Amino acid sequence: MALKSTIFKATLAVADIDHGYYADHALTLARHPSETDERMMIRLVALALNAYKLQDVCQGDGTLAFGAGLSNPDEPDVWLRDFTGAVRLWIEVGQPEEKPVIKACGKADETIVYAFHHAAEVWWRGIENKLTRPQNLAVYRVPTAASQALAALAQRSMQLQATIQEGTLMLGDGTHSVDIEPLRWK
Questions:
Q1: What phi, psi does 176 have (nearest 5°)?
Q2: Could you give the count of Cα atoms lying within 13 Å of 111 in the half-sphere of its Cβ?
Q3: What span, in angstroms and rounded, lies between the C-alpha atoms of 48 and 9?
């Protein structure tokens, strides 16, 4: 019998000072049985860091949501679609292979990868030369200590505040807080 996803609910208050974006997002995260709390929280961080694009790219008339991710390789971990259904932003987390990343670059206006885990540097050295062509691709490294600290914030029901200032995301639940400063690799 197949294992079912675990459902997490999050209310995410985003205050993106860098982009002048302030909004509350009611989110449902389905954590795949093979997904860790750390990876799930990186998906949430990716959404928070790019939430402003809902206004900047789609003028508020779009959908920013979690994709099927691990359950369906043809969907991203997070995506932004405009009112026509066009994919404006495709986000992957982890260390994806080059072919799905290049394919995503062809499906979306912008593609972003958020690499995390202690093996991210090894992954990047092996794939960097294969990802030089796509001009609409950005790759970021989330520091290992920060990504591991995020797992402690994972609860079945979460009330989170995300403040983005000078490129740093401060994510907290009122008791604990994690500062994340993604390093841009590409």
A1: -120, 155
A2: 21
A3: 15
From CA 165, how far away is CA 66, in angstroms rounded? 24
Task: Give me the pLDDT at residue 2, please.
Answer: 61
Average pLDDT over residues 152-157: 93
CA pair distance 8, 27, nearest whole angstrom: 8
**Straight-line distance from the first to the last Cα atom of the chain, in angstroms, rounded to the nearest whole number:** 41
What pLDDT does 69 receive?
A: 64
pTM score: 0.92
Q: What is the mean pLDDT of residues 109-132?
A: 94
pLDDT tens figures, 67-76: 876 667 778 9
Residue 50 host element (H or E):
helix 37-50
